[in-house]
Specification:
The protein has 134 residues and is α/β, with parallel strands linked by helices. It folds into 2 domains: 70 residues, 2-Layer Sandwich (Trypsin Inhibitor V, Chain A), CATH 3.30.10; 58 residues, Trypsin Inhibitor V, Chain A, CATH 3.30.10. It starts with 19 loop residues before the first helix and ends with a strand. 19% of the residues are buried.
Amino acid sequence: RPSAGPTGGPTVPDVVGADFEKARDELRDRKLGWRFIFGTGNGREVVRTVPAADAPVTRGTTVQVYVAGPAPQVEVPDLDDEDCADVARELGELGLYPRYPSGRAGTVSAQDPLAGATARWNDQVSVTCTPEQD
């Protein structure tokens, strides 16, 4: 259960030493945002956070999470014909971020990189959306 700071709001969880994906889940559970900064060493463990553990924060605060090793590779999913409103969550689960050059309405008609390509956590996927025709 999330602990509360002196104002009754959330605090930054102590995730140092944890796998970065577990850290993401804990931050999400506390309604906090996250930004991973990957290092040049080895491993998936968190080495520090800014703000630090137990610091009182407000809901929605983005916590910078420093990870020992480099960003892991992931396979880009096939987004073709998916609802553009839903792809941010799918990409986010893989550590990718959507970019919408044509807006977010409609269904996915193109993406870059293509499905099956290799990307790294924090990479952007350009998603072209085509509005539904009446």
